[in-house]
Amino acid sequence: MTEQNTIRVPQQTRSIEKKKRLMDAAMAEFGAKGFHGTNAKGIAKGAGVSVGTFYAYFTDKKAILFEIINQHLIEIDQSIFKTLTRKMDEGATGREVIGHIVKLGHEAHHHSPELLRVMLSMQYIDEDFKEYAATEFNGTTTKLSKFLKTMSDRLRITDMEAAAQVVANAFEETMHSVATGQPHVEQDRLYNALIDMTSIYLFKDPDAPLSHPSQDN
Amino acid sequence: MTEQNTIRVPQQTRSIEKKKRLMDAAMAEFGAKGFHGTNAKGIAKGAGVSVGTFYAYFTDKKAILFEIINQHLIEIDQSIFKTLTRKMDEGATGREVIGHIVKLGHEAHHHSPELLRVMLSMQYIDEDFKEYAATEFNGTTTKLSKFLKTMSDRLRITDMEAAAQVVANAFEETMHSVATGQPHVEQDRLYNALIDMTSIYLFKDPDAPLSHPSQDN
Amino acid sequence: MTEQNTIRVPQQTRSIEKKKRLMDAAMAEFGAKGFHGTNAKGIAKGAGVSVGTFYAYFTDKKAILFEIINQHLIEIDQSIFKTLTRKMDEGATGREVIGHIVKLGHEAHHHSPELLRVMLSMQYIDEDFKEYAATEFNGTTTKLSKFLKTMSDRLRITDMEAAAQVVANAFEETMHSVATGQPHVEQDRLYNALIDMTSIYLFKDPDAPLSHPSQDN
Amino acid sequence: MTEQNTIRVPQQTRSIEKKKRLMDAAMAEFGAKGFHGTNAKGIAKGAGVSVGTFYAYFTDKKAILFEIINQHLIEIDQSIFKTLTRKMDEGATGREVIGHIVKLGHEAHHHSPELLRVMLSMQYIDEDFKEYAATEFNGTTTKLSKFLKTMSDRLRITDMEAAAQVVANAFEETMHSVATGQPHVEQDRLYNALIDMTSIYLFKDPDAPLSHPSQDN
DNA sequence: AATGAATGAGTATTCATTCAT
DNA sequence: TATGAATGAATACTCATTCAT
User: Fold this and answer.
1) Considering only CA atoms, which of C131, C125, C60, C73 is closest in space to residue D125?
2) Are residues D51 and D41 in contact, defined by beta-carbon separation less than 8 angstroms?
3) In the prediction, which pLDDT does A108 show?
4) A177, C4, C148, C209: which has the highest count of C-beta atoms within 10 A?
5) Is residue A214 situated within a structural domain?
6) A125 and A199 share a domain?
7) Do the Cβ atoms of B162 and A181 come within 8 Å?
8) Chain A residues with CB within 8 Å of chain B CB
9) Which residues of A touch D (CB under 8 A)?
10) A54 and A87, same structural domain?
């Protein structure tokens, strides 16, 4: 009702640690019971603080989930695109680069499969999360699209934007299916198929080194 | 999901119609407000019956959602595989058959995008739905896998099961992104990319007719 | 959040009785603990029903207080103006009629002094109650004003509206001070003073009979 | 209202100023949001100090409201009775003196109508405030009563105490209705009626000068 | 078969007050 | 003296489910 509710922005070491404890506890709770099964009281208890303290750091349980997910996605995103150019400089082929992305993506998704489930469900339930996920995904495909454009002469495809999105979709869904659960087929066969499909699709020659494009011409 | 109470199995015409009314009302409610925003009272009201009647036909709101989704998926599944063989007999190429699947899938997913969202969220929230979705998806990939095996000599790929799943994944996610959301790229470009990717991946020659395999040998 | 909350309008005998029980319990609670000290749970408990039942009959505690007060004011209002004309026909003087009003007002205010306190506080706290009280008071003064106009030739005063309001104010406050508590002076002396003040103010001759004005002229 | 903790009685200039700042902030908060809508944190924030500091100066929010109201009433009370004798010495009539009181009362009540509302509501809600208001009102009527006794030979009325209270009641309520609300009749007509009613009631000749009573006899 | 009144555990959130720093 | 982080009891309100009629 009143607008004097200020959310605590921790500067002190103790406060920062308390906020972290809350986020860790929240992650555990969300992972175990889902969004609707989790409540502020439980999170606070898990973190060893009072409900009041929870509400001092976060406006509500949606806010804390948001912050948790945000932090994770930032980590994932960074980890994927960071090493790509280095790989290429090492003379990796298209197929190898794709394989590397699969490996990184796999690791990222397996950081916390439980949380991943919650995150995935939220984008279908909540408008804010939907929007956030869309923006996030958009960012990823844009990066991928740009990445593809830097090597356009090695590519089969011409519509880079569409390709980036379709490939990202295939990656997403396959990662999720592996991370959240039911692998009807062993993970390696699945990843091999994924690598094969996207490599064949994207590259003129998936097994040629990607770097030093000038030399090939 | 246990059936501790006797749930009415309608034999009478009036009962069947009442059950249908309940399911229609439920679909509308779930679509508009999501699973957690919907309650039994609202569904009953929408169907013009009492809460008691609702509970006479369904154990709880999960049960009615289950039944609704089940019905839809059956329809979708049938619509996709029904016409495939006919297409092939008409001399369609691999690319054309894939294109046909995309068209059917698109229609199916756009039958009720709202409900689709609920369905998608539920598989991340609820164990029963997760299991169901897995089985369903498994069924689809199995069918696809079998379908691929009937034309193995025309295919690039060798691991049919893995291919079926990866292709199904790419389809799923792309359909969903179009159905539930903000397409960053126009739908047609996306679908073309999807068709291109999967055709190139699956077939030795995506533009050769699939039928009469004996002739080619 | 959802708008399917329908407030139960009792038609059955049992329901009507339940609603009455709730209102009686609420009156007791409000009287004893004031508005902010009372909660739905307590009212329900007092009425021997569950909280849910409370909320089935009333949207919130404000609503039930409103209904209680409304009922009381209707009773008060009716009791005051009902017998006035009869008194006049019996040849009562202005002073006697005023005395009669004081008597009726006193009875009305003493129906439930505790509730009166709550009612009075609410008009200063809550906008809806303020508005309601204003309307109600307006109604009373309007009636009084009309009543005065029927005997304008017997009156000293010329601005009937202003007189009606000032007289009503004097009545109100004196009634309240007697009903809610601290009589620094005995009630009868106070009422006599009130009668004296308003009679002298309103009438040319407070001790002449009010009826049959034609005869006097 | 018990003082279990040591409440700071400011002697230092800085402390006095801090207390004033708190009271000013509290007035603003109470006026804007009422008693129940206001909380210690908000007041402290408004005063630019910490909650702890608030509790160092006041036991709770009731205490600060008490102090604020007390200060205001003292001011009002003084302003009303201060100039009365002077007016009389200037040869004012009874009606003119009453008119002067109305003017002063009006000004006093309009100092902070918002706070007035809070004050009025509190006397119906809280026992301590009720008692305080009673005492305060008692004081006013006692003063008025004494004032009247100094001019008993000019008065119609004989029961000075009762008259003082009834007149005070009429004043109170009319002032409040003007200050807090929707005047159904213009303020001037209302005040004129009030002056007329009380003058006619109190004085033998409302239009004769009050001073030098000996000369008249 | 159908109704819908009744239940009450459960949930999110606030805020007066304390107390270690 | 002053701070403001921390506490946790308390509150309004909802909704899945039952069961007497």
Assistant:
1) C125
2) yes
3) 85
4) A177
5) no
6) yes
7) no
8) 34-36, 117-118, 120-122, 124-125, 130, 134, 138, 141, 156-157, 159, 161-163, 165-167, 169-170, 172-174, 177, 180-182, 184-185, 189-190, 192-194, 196-198, 200-201
9) 1-2, 4
10) no
